[in-house]
């Protein structure tokens, strides 16, 4: 999985912070930068001025794959067209994201000049097949939209269905996550207020690239997204109640995942949990232990003989359902 972040050159108030981000993020393994120069992000900065500022930022971004959101109106301002993207290429961009307003023929023309990122919500299957047949496949990628307005982002069902169309055709695809500073630019509504680690972890099950949509994420959030990228096994974030040495050591192991049970997902390991079972009230998200097994319940139930050690939230439950082997990321 590749990871990236967003920069908005026309947002002049945070220009210096964005340049610092470009310099810093590479230390955490970030390799992509999405740039938005349209008026949707910074109404007071003309596209032409935002483009000039983008050139300054691109001077710091030589090691990154950088791509810019375009539509016919933006191209007109930049004295460009689908047949001539030379001004964008000379500025230092390596790709363009065709947001809306382009025909399949125009997308093929653009792909002859630089990488073209498709908008999965603007391309039909027939158009996609035409593009993959006529364009250089190495120059075709896709990145989902982000949706700043509350409740406006797409459902996980639509996301999975659309993403699969591109994956079946071997097209590298990306999606956006928000950050807690803004909680705006997310592809999936269920991830709008999610922890960046959880959002990246969830998307890693579907896409090749995860991009932080909101600008100037804190270093902590860069580190959490990078942790997902670097991990070779799925980590489930669990809030732990019992903080004794036995419990914390038990959670450090690797666990196989069994999804056969009616009311729980069972994670099992070879290590024995050396504490007595006790009776507890079972609730949705409860993380409990019996012997070598961790039982994570998916429903509010009655009292049963399990040792309660913590809980997980709905996003981590969804990630767990898609996993066959896991470790736990402990939150105290």
TrEMBL record:
<dbReference type="InterPro" id="IPR043797">
    <property type="entry name" value="MupG_N"/>
</dbReference>
<protein>
    <recommendedName>
        <fullName>6-phospho-N-acetylmuramidase N-terminal domain-containing protein</fullName>
    </recommendedName>
</protein>
<dbReference type="InterPro" id="IPR013785">
    <property type="entry name" value="Aldolase_TIM"/>
</dbReference>
<dbReference type="InterPro" id="IPR017853">
    <property type="entry name" value="GH"/>
</dbReference>
<dbReference type="Pfam" id="PF19200">
    <property type="entry name" value="MupG_N"/>
</dbReference>
<feature type="domain" description="6-phospho-N-acetylmuramidase N-terminal">
    <location>
        <begin position="3"/>
        <end position="226"/>
    </location>
</feature>
<dbReference type="InterPro" id="IPR008589">
    <property type="entry name" value="MupG"/>
</dbReference>
């Amino acid at each position: 999985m590749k990871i990236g972040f967003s920069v908005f050159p026309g947002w002049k108030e945070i220009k210096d912070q964005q340049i610092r981000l470009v310099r810093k993020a590479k230390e955490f393994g970030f390799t992509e930068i999405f740039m938005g120069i349209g008026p949707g992000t910074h109404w007071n900065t003309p596209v032409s001025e935002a483009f000039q500022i983008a050139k300054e930022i691109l001077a710091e971004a030589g090691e990154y794959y950088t791509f810019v959101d375009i539509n016919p109106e933006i191209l007109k301002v930049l004295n460009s067209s689908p047949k001539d993207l030379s001004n964008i290429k000379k500025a230092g961009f390596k790709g363009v994201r065709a947001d809306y307003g382009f025909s399949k023929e125009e997308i093929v023309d653009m792909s002859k000049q630089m990488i073209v990122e498709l908008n999965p919500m603007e391309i039909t299957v027939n158009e996609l097949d035409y593009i993959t047949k006529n364009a250089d496949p190495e120059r075709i990628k896709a990145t989902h939209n982000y949706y700043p307005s509350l409740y406006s982002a797409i459902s996980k069902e639509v996301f999975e269905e659309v993403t699969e169309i591109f994956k079946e055709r071997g097209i590298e695809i990306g999606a956006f996550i928000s950050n807690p500073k803004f909680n705006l630019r997310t592809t999936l509504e269920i991830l709008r207020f999610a922890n960046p680690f959880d959002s990246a972890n969830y998307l890693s099950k579907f896409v090749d690239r995860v991009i932080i949509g909101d600008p100037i994420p804190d270093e902590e959030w860069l580190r959490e997204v990078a942790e997902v990228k670097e991990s070779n096994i799925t980590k489930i974030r669990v809030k732990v109640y019992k903080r004794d040495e036995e419990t914390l050591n038990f959670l450090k192991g690797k666990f196989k995942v069994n999804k056969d049970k009616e009311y729980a997902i069972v994670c099992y390991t070879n290590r024995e949990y050396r504490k007595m079972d006790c009776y507890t009230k079972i609730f949705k998200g409860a993380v409990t232990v019996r012997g070598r097994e961790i039982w994570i319940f998916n429903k509010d139930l009655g009292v049963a003989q399990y040792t309660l050690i913590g809980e997980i939230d709905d996003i981590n439950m969804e990630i767990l359902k898609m996993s066959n082997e896991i470790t736990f990321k402990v939150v105290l």
